[in-house]
Please model this.
Amino acid sequence: MNREIERKFRVVDDLYKSGSTSCLYKQGYLCTDKERTVRIRIAGEKGYITIKGRTTGCSRAEYEYEIPLADAASMLDTLCVKPLIEKIRYRCTGPDGKVWEVDEFLGENVGLVVAEIELSGEDEPFARPSWVGDEVTGDPRYYNSNLSQTPYNKW
Model:
């Protein structure tokens, strides 16, 4: 089984932009119940469908497959729950060489900036960059699937 082990943090400043690469993401959800989510995403010029299981601690089952860009765009327009999630994702390297992804949200979630690090184990050590603030891994408000239902501007 594919497992995603991810920790999530608020971001305190924009130093993550220095030396990072970025990509525009647009995503929506076909299913957002507690046992599973089904997401459609366009990242740059590629489309994806992702199925994720229930989150336990900071891990969950995850399956992701590339799909035709036109199919992803059509599903976002016609099938996904609105509002869609729009964000700029920055990829940068932390002080210990681990890759961090920082999502700068747009649209109804503008103002929210969250950093994520994927780990190989829940207890894997890592160094926090200076721009990483409070951990929000266990706070469901920060799940992208929940941001599509209760956007940051409604908190």
